[in-house]
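Objective 1b of the project was to move from sequence-level analysis to a structural picture of ligand recognition. The entry below was assembled by the postdoctoral researcher (A.K.) and checked by the PI before modelling. It contains the amino acid sequence of the target and the SMILES of the bound compound, S-adenosylmethionine.
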Amino acid sequence: MSTEAKKLIEVALPIKEISAESVRDKSIRHGHISTLHLWWARRPLPVSRAIVFASLMPDPLDPACPSAFVDALEDQLGRAKNLGDPYAPYEDIPYTAAIDKMPDNLRNRLMMFIAKFSPQFIKNEKEGKSTAAKYKLSDYSLIKWDNKNNPDILKKARCLIFIAHQAAIQKEASYKELLEEFEELYQALNDKERAYYDLLDRHLPSPKQQQALKEQETALSQFLAKMPKVFDPFAGGGAIPLEAARLGCQSYGNDINPVAHIIQKASLEFPQKYGKRMRYSLSEFEQRYGESGLAKAKAEGLLFGEEVELPNRLSFDVRFFAEKMLAQAEAKIGQYYPANEEGQKPIAYYWARTARCSNPSCGAEVPLLRQFYLSRKKGKMIYLQPIIQDKDIQFEIKEGSCQLEGWMERANLSCPCCGAVTPNKQLKLQFKERGIKERLIAVIDQGAQGKAYRLAEKRDLDVWSYLPKDIERPLESMEIGNELV
Ligand SMILES: C[S@@+](CC[C@H](N)C(=O)[O-])C[C@H]1O[C@@H](n2cnc3c(N)ncnc32)[C@H](O)[C@@H]1O
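Corresponding predicted holo structure:
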């Protein structure tokens, strides 16, 4: 018989609370890894954080649970001196019909630490009112989006993971001893990181810089050596290793797909390596970023006397070099993307293939549209309203919901001018005989308030007349893995 306590995930999870925050996760954009690169099966971050944490926590009600860990929970999740009792289980579980008190035990407290509904949500539920997604969970919940960088809550989670892990290794150690060990390692890591990131021009090797770097790396490896290893062999978009790293674990991701591999490098490895504070002397900064960089630093309030301090070097670099590349692209090909009257540039062209109606008495040239929406966003439904006069098909742009049926169904064309159907076989024949015809219908500009939709105008079509015929194409080999292809 196993003498090891079951993990929390095997006995209980605050599913309703995790679901509420995970629904919210889908609509968060700013600062979310989903905006770095799309990955179709990426798990919500609240679920990932909850399952990693709950997989590392022994069930405190299991008789085999180490006593040091039970003591840790009593200390860390019990009534706090100045915060009240944020992890007290519900007086009345908010999602059950009956009046239902949740027993005050450590398993339930641990669940409430992962996620607990807020007093506002509980009150609203009783009154039959809805609560905005961001107010559903209590401010002390580990998985709440707003707590992703909360130093107190993350420290608590890391400390509990440390104690759970070490209590299983150092079986005789008390909570007090393990807590002291954690505090010492955690403090050393914070101190050594601060000392290293405080150095001016730390990118330039010097004995002082080498020493500070070594001490920071040692403090990090000493802390990580005492934390569990979390390995996700099918890590996809990196949600699980990201959350394991956030919880202070030694985190590893793997995937057979090279795109997933690059996403994981960009969202897990690079921010940890390069996304740190950086102090440059003015001369070093100017040498690296030139006058435009200095102007940007000034505009963003990053210039302090004779030095520049970047809160996050990676994010500054990404923005700086992206703007530089954009300016170079604008100088080279900007003239092929004419701005509208307000100086706004197009960001997308909406083209449709066209085919001729096979009815000999009609012969209208019809755009092959399955539907007419340009945007289906809630609150911004935009569609093309056809205006048909005899065989001429024009459009206007309308807002709202579109009730029109598309002209293409099961790859057959239904002519909006005469109603005749041109079957797929005939369409293919036309493509072979006359080539594929296309029509530019609409243009999406980058407006001040987001995307602006308009019909294509003469200036958009005129671009084709002055596009260079002998466009240079890159012919040099590209490096993929260790090979040039
Ligand atoms: C459901 S997705 C994982 C999603 C991930 N948890 C996330 O949050 O993004 C499954 C992943 O397994 C990867 N995969 C499938 N077969 C694999 C194999 N034999 N070795 C490594 N990865 C594999 C796929 O490429 C895919 O990214």
